[in-house]
Amino acid sequence: MKAFRFLFTFLFLFSFVPGLVFAQADFADIDDTDYEDSIESLSEMGVIQGYDDGTFKPLNSVNRAEMLKMILLAVDEDAQEYEGDCFPDVTDQWFAPYVCLAKEKGIVDGHEDGYFRPGDEANMAEAFKIVINAFDLPVDDLEDVEDWFIPYREFVHNNNLFSKYSYLPGNLANRGEVAFLVDKMMEIQRKESYVSAERDSASLGCGKSSPGIVPSTFMVDGTERDAIVVIPSDYDKDKAIPLVFAFHGRTNSNDDVKKYYGIEKPSGGNAIFVYPAGIQGSSGYTWSDGGDSSGDLRDYEFFDVMFEEISENYCVDLDKVYGVGHSLGAWFTNSLSCARGDVLRAVGTLGGSRSNSECTGPVAAMQWHNPNDELASFAGAETTRDWYLAQNQCSQGYDSVSPFWGNCVQYEGCSDIAPVIFCPHENDYDSRGNYYTHNWPKATGEEIWNFFESLE
Question: What is the pLDDT of residue 456?
Fold first, then answer.
């Protein structure tokens, strides 16, 4: 009965949206989107509708009133009969019964000024809470949590719906994400199978016998690309370990940075390291082609292929995937941390800026840069830092932080899982004693690894 009411909810909800029509066929704009399967599944059931131009518009947002109407009709078939007038801006409108019933059930609260603001776009935290509570699925009562949404975020993370490392609570929910949540919650309820405790973050490669030969090449869009892959000598197929991607700069090869990054030793053999090789051109190595959009650099696909192949064949802790880079490698790593924020847990970079785009999630970041750097602008590093602050929803306030050397500061107000540490350093000489302000100080690799290890 509840499933039937839920189907009715979707149909009823979207009938209020101008331009929508019934659609039980393929939509023109969902191919290869993240939620294609869920959208198609709900469409085949007659649950959701598309627009009259044959599209679903999976990226369109939903507002708080629409979200509540959908959810409340799913849990109470008489919700539309409930008396309204529970907020100054919720009185006798079509959505009043649903908002007021949700308030009585403790699903929603108003803002500090007493208003509900039904037309505000719904964010992910609200979507998590409303859907989970509506389906009466238990969340852990986490002690001493700083924010109300954390138990709900943990539930969707533990059940492999949305990773807590890829979504900030303030991110707006869109139609595709709502369809995905609905589809998955229906599946969880149907199977009565859910995880409320901390989940296992082991990759698909865990428990599998590792390949006889460590991979050194990867096929990317028909082109063979090289990488140095280092597997621990005592690798255990049943123990999930971190995975670190280390990108080189314009003039140094992947073999060069494997030697001078100095990050393998402090890991104590407790991680898989990948040193990809950029494509060499007339002016040095590159990670992108001219004309690439900021959100779609050429070698994002290279990263995707390496990550997928390694995590499917080796036992990787998916909550501990890291990126490291120097110079142009830092630029690519910083850029990747925005475009692949749903994969990378943290990055450590030195001497690079970033190609900014719409980020896919928060990423913990440690940035090193010499203010005297003559090859990579310190102003560019500051701009990159500010992008990280926005990406991780940090404030401009900061405190000095140790034990990291240099003049490191950690910014306040960041997502609890995505701190930002900025480290201007004054090491102007390379290991040979030559004046070179773009150098990689000897301790950098160890400090970056310590940063990774310090994350919860």
Answer: 74
* CATH class of the domain whose range is 217-454: alpha beta
Q: What is the DSSP string of 155-186?
A: HHHHTTSS-TTT--TTSBPBHHHHHHHHHHHH
**445 confidence band (pLDDT: 50, 70, 90):** very high
Which residues, other chains included, contact 317 with Cβ-Cβ below 8 Å and sequence gap of 6+? 201, 202, 203, 240, 241, 242, 243
Average pLDDT over residues 148-163: 88
Q: Which amino acid is at 151?
A: P
Report how far residue 155's alpha carbon sits from residue 44's, in angstroms, rounded to the nearest whole number: 28
Q: What is the pLDDT of residue 46?
A: 63
Contacts of 298 (CB under 8 A, 6+ apart): 286, 287, 288, 289, 292
Nearest in space to 338 (alpha carbons), one of 291, 301, 390: 390
Spans of all domains in the chain: 2-191, 217-454
365 versus 157: which is more confidently predicted?
Answer: 365
CA angle in degrees (0–180, nearest 5) for 442-446-447: 100
State the helix-helix crossing angle for 124-134 and 64-75, rounded to 10 degrees. Answer: 10
CA distance 441 to 61: 46
Binned at pLDDT 50, 70 and 90, residue 20 comes out as: very low
Cα separation, 263 vs 276, in Å, equals 15
For tokens 């890829």, the residue is 166
Share of residues in the chain with pLDDT > 70 (%): 92
Grouping H, G, I as helix, E, B as strand and the rest as coil, residue 93 is: coil
